[in-house]
Amino acid sequence: MSDTPESHIRYLGGESGHRGFFGGTASKTRMILLSVFIAGGMVGMVSGLGLPALIVAVSGVGITMLTTARTHRGTVLERRRKRARARARKRLGTDEFVPYEVGAWDQLQEAILRGTKTEKQAAERAAVKMRANPDGADGMGWLQYASNMPGIAWHAPIGEQPYLSVAFSVSGQLRGMETAAALTRAANAWGKFLARRAAPSSLIRNVQTLTRVLPPDSARQQQWVKTRLEPVQESWTAEQRASFEAQKLSYDEVIRKSSANAMVQRHYVVVSWPLTQQFTDAAAKFGPGRDAWRALMAGQIQATELGLNEARMGDVQALTAKQTTALMLHQQNPHLPIDLTRNVDPLLSGIASRDEFSAHIVDGVDPTSLVMTEAGPVSPPVTWWHRTAAIHGENLAVAGRSPLWCLDLLIGRELTFVRSVSFHLHLVPAGQAKAKARADVVRDLAGVLADQQKGRLISDDSTTRMSAAQRRSADLAAGSHHHGVDWIGFVTISAPTRADLGHASRQLEEACATGLGIEHLDWQDSFQSAASGTTWPLGRGLRPAGATLATRAINRLAGRTDKEAIS
After folding, report:
1. CA-CA distance, 92 to 95, in Å (whole number)?
2. C-alpha–C-alpha distance, residues 561 and 565, integer Å
3. What confidence tens digit (pLDDT) does each residue in 479-535 have?
4. Most exposed among 48, 224, 266, 391, judged by the fewest C-beta atoms under 10 Å?
5. φ, ψ at 102 (rounded to 5°)
6. Each residue of 142-174: pLDDT tens digit?
7. How far apart are CA 500 and CA 365, in angstroms?
8. Please, which residues bridge with residue 487 across strands?
9. How far apart are CA 321 and CA 299, in angstroms?
10. Does 458 have pLDDT greater than 90?
11. CA distance 134 to 137
């Protein structure tokens, strides 16, 4: 990318979140434990416990520092938490998922009420496994799932703010050979799309980009050949028939060779609307009830489609509920065609699965092929193993990156496995982002100056955080029309066997370390089934940073809406 304009080189990496009140970015767990042990030691000394209280406090502080120290494999506390979570899930039976069926559920309830003790225990465990949605789509329903209409998903995950989401299929900004000027225009257009939706008056707060990388489907080419082949004539000679069959074999070979070791990309953008008081007040202008919500969302979807077109995203189309569900089912079982919606029920978005510590395992069938059995032709059973990793900003090497810095992950020739790459963006209004950036710069500068005055060696972490905060503050300067963003990336890899999944994991780690500068992939082990949902078109996977006290105060002063206003 030597021809990429310098003005579009951006520095990513090294940023590990907003600073705490006392500076630094230590985890909340460490700060809480340290505070408990220090306060407990002081209380113990004052209470007259003396040396034993001091020893317990010092020991607790030391153990806390050791167990919360960051390493390339995470902290000791995180690893123990993962193992404990995996054991708890296996003990409770939530490591398996069985799609909900009315008849099977009624039978389980009957066994729980009237069965023997053994039957009751077995039924209770089976009932825990049976759920309406898979773990990755927990709490999901539909506000609108009619045919030929945009599907509006309604999410109410436990412990999170409810929101609505709509998925859009896009063909992408760059296709084929493009110039550096086209790349610059595309980057500017996408930045404007995000900036226009980050203002406090906007109802949109989260945007997810999703790229599905999968082998090409030659069904359309084969169908095209069948519709255009000349039918066999009875008057043909043996030589003509042999030539005809040779031509068919030749074309089949061309399709097979062009598809071998090739991967194609399908691109999507998912936009989320939090169900806040601002949203409900805006919907109230359209009337009462859920119909008002749908009316408001119709305008929001139309405006989003227009914005994606202006962002040069190519062919933009809002997915129906069936299309969104078909994409989710395909991501669970890649043998299911991504565009096959004929038999899809939007209310059934999960396939039977089970979890291991490092894998989400889905058992399904291959509907594109048939195997002859005694009972007749049936679709053969297939198994897919999935594993998801998170990409955090602090695990990125600090370096200048062009808009195509993820190209090796999306179309890298050495990555031949099926995968989904998703980035979640939480839009932060400029005022709030600017206040956080300035506070971070002040605290980081104060820490560096204090180290210099005391003659201490300044750590690389301090200078890296300071430079990242300074760059963010410069980007948000007055007149730049920029807004802030919290982001995280996820990659889900899929393979047909456990050994293939392990090989794909090593391939992904090597490609990310060498090509993208990602020093550490945070594998979401012990809850892989839920982690798979971060790369589904649902807008899940990012917990935004909390607003500052000043921001909350300003929002209070701004009020919710003018009820007398016409809009």
Report:
1. 8
2. 8
3. 677 788 889 999 999 999 999 999 999 999 999 988 888 888 999 999 999 999 999
4. 48
5. -60, -50
6. 999 998 999 999 999 988 899 999 999 999 887
7. 19
8. 425
9. 18
10. no
11. 5
